[in-house]
Each structure stands twice: as structure tokens, then as C-alpha cells.
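# step 3/5: fold
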Amino acid sequence: MKTSAILIFIISISLFESKLRDMTTMEIIRDMGIGINLGNTMESCGDWIWEYGDHSVKSYETAWGSPVIQKEMIEGIKREGFGVMRLPVHWFNLMADDYTINDEYIERVKQIVDWAIDAKLYVILNIHHDEKEFFKNMPTKTDATLKNFKKIWTQIASAFKSYDDYLMFEALNEEACWGDVYNQWSGSDAGKKEVFDYTYQLNQAFVDVVRESGGNNAERHLLLAGYCTDADLTCDSMYKMPKDPANRCAVSIHYYTPATFCILSEDADWGKAQSTWGTKDDIKELNNKFDMMKSTFIDKGIPIIIGEYGATTTNKDMDSVRNFIYSVCNAAYSRKMLPVLWDGPDGFYNREKGSLNDAVLREMLNSVKG
């Protein structure tokens, strides 16, 4: 090959590769603004889908009520003022017994990620759910769980290694939580150190695999699992950050407090459904929680992403729902955290129309960024 041809080849390769910017994770998160989840879609799961579906990617994508995702649906998310889309994925849906992920599943996820990045959205991509009790077995099958966890992330990291810093990896969802080993409500610390160590091991394995997987992954921004993604537990002194040579990690915390308002649409044996929110005590609790997260992490230079927050709208006062969503979003953003609203097919964002259903809520959310 002639020298001129070699130079052209090298230049073309360098142009093809996406480069990471010289930005800290805190700066990247600030650039993201506010976000929304593409929920109940690529993470929908259940043996019944396999039994009654056609074993296709589409059968899982639509099983929990989502239409087949189209490019226009993703573009609408950007138009509505969101800067990042969290994409939960249940990779176990189409995975062989040896933990090899189906190629078609990976390609479909890549297509959705590509649409989002083309729309100038950041993307947070994770492992979601524990339908097959993969993470639940961590206390009894620690070595095997870590080995197979690494195999899963090796495949994901390899598939996306050329992507730039508009793509962030998230280790797992809420599965770093072992209530059978440590009961936080018991008044005893029995098993506490053990479960926090499991979380540390999973986070460290995640960082190690991604950093060693080549391409842009050596410096990709990463999102670590909080313990149960619970604010109080993740802010506990037993929670430890893994070692990361790139120093580009954030911590994931979810916010559904109080659960009687956010989750319950009717009374349950563990609580009475709350239809309204916004009293002085409610606001005080919210600010106390976010001040705790700020002092524990943000003030020490460790970024926080509120990967999920929200409230059911069934049997709720809608002004209270709007107030809660706005207040959480503002509490996070004003403390330099990233708030990512949980949303499914019948939620706040209308996927068919490509817009939020509630214009008032849209204005409230967009006002958070000033």
C-alpha cells in the first residue's frame, strides 16, 4: 500500500472512531440536564412471554404495553426538554444457558441507542430486573454470579465500545439488595457488612470489565449500583466506592418516598395509600433526604444520578402528582444531581404523539433548568 493510501486509511479510521470529551462525570451529568426512562419496554420480562409469544425481540419489547419503538418517539423526548434517556434492558430475556446474549437483541438495543444519540440525547444503558434470580443468588453462589455477571458485561461493553460519552453504562438496577441476609427493619446489623460487600464486589467487577474491554470504555462514564438504590442505605458509611483508574463513576439512587404516595394506588397490608402530597412535613422530608445525599456524595466530588423517581396517578390528586415530580426534579437538579423520571407506555410521555400528555407538567419540569 502506498504512503498516501495508508494516510487516507488512518484518517478515515480516526474519523470513524468517536472520541470522548475532556469532561468530568459531574460535568457530563450537568450537561444531561433532566431525563426520562423508556420504561416497561426492553426490560419487560416473564416466562409467559416465552411460552405464549413467538420468541422474538418484538414479543418482549411490546409485552408490557409499549408500541414498537420508532425513531420519532425518541426524537419527541428531546423536543419535550429532556437531555437523557435511561434505557432499562432485561438481557436475560434472550440469553442462552451459558449467558450468551442473542445478537438480534443486542442489535435492537443498539438501534434504539443510535436513535437517541442521533437526537442529541444522552443514554444510560443498564442490566434491569432479576427475573431468573441471578443476583439473588449472590450470597450462596458468589463466585459463579460474579463470573457470569462479568460475562454479560463483557458482551455489552464490547458491543458499544466505539460509542462516545453520550452513552453511559449502569451496572444494574435495584438488584443489589439482599433482605434475607440483612433486614434493615430488624434493628440488628446482622448481615449488614456482608450485603454491602456484595454490592462492592458487583460494582468493582463492573468497573474492571468495562475498563478492560477496549475502545472508549477505558474512560467511559459509569453508573454504580447503590445499595437497594435506597437513599438512606446508599448513604450509609458501609457503602464503598470501587476503584476506578479513570475516576469516572456516579452512584445510582432511586426516589419513591413516601412509598404510600408514590407506589400505592390502594391500601396494602404494609401501608395506607396516600392520595395527596405537599405538606410542610412532606417538603421537609424531601429536602432532608436530598441534603443527606448531597453531603454524602456531591460535596465529596462523587456524582449522583436519581435514576428513577415518580408517582402513580391512579387514585391520586393530580396537582399533588405534579408537585411531587417537580419538587423531586428541582431538589435533585439544584443540588447538581441528575433526575430521571420513571415512565412507561401509559405514563407521562405519549409515545404515539411524541409529547408529554400534561402541558402543565412539561412547563414545570422545563422551568427547573432555568
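# step 4/5: annotate
Residues 106 and 159 are 8 Å apart (CA to CA).
# step 5/5: archive (pending)
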